[in-house]
Amino acid sequence: MKLNILKSKIHRAVVTQADLNYVGSITIDKDLMDAANILEYEKVDIVDIDNGNRFHTYVIAGERGSKVICLNGAAARCVQPQDKIIIMCYCEIDEEEYREHKPKVVFINEDNSIDKITNYEKHGEIHLG
């Protein structure tokens, strides 16, 4: 049996742009993608902390070091620049792999720089307000 499990997430990224006229997707700084092990064109779920919107799209690599987080196309209607979002990516693993799996979590500062990276997430251990 295959399980659909959280692979990684970028936590509390700040939306820098929302471009309604772009073809679609989310553009993410390549440095952030690499840190979270998210691949270009990979499907991601987006949660807007400020307005509660939840949706999914795919990733386009942004310029390395740009700190860009840009929602494109229809997804641009779900956010506003300066909103904080969580970007989550999933993988399919079998039950044996699950026993050793630890999601990668990339915590982001207000300027979209990396604060810290962890390989697990447990309720009650980390709370960001």
UniProtKB/TrEMBL annotation:
The active site is at S25, Y58. Signal peptide: none annotated. Its EC number is 4.1.1.11. It is found in: Cytoplasm. It catalyses: L-aspartate + H(+) = beta-alanine + CO2. Gene3D superfamilies: 2.40.40.20. It is an enzyme of class 4 (lyase). Keywords: Autocatalytic cleavage, Cytoplasm, Decarboxylase, Lyase, Pantothenate biosynthesis, Pyruvate, Schiff base, Zymogen. The keyword Membrane does not apply. Is synthesized initially as an inactive proenzyme, which is activated by self-cleavage at a specific serine bond to produce a beta-subunit with a hydroxyl group at its C-terminus and an alpha-subunit with a pyruvoyl group at its N-terminus. One of its GO terms (molecular function) is aspartate 1-decarboxylase activity. The modification Pyruvic acid (Ser) is found at S25. Heterooctamer of four alpha and four beta subunits. This is Aspartate 1-decarboxylase. It comes from Clostridium ganghwense. The lineage of its organism: Bacteria, Bacillati, Bacillota, Clostridia, Eubacteriales.
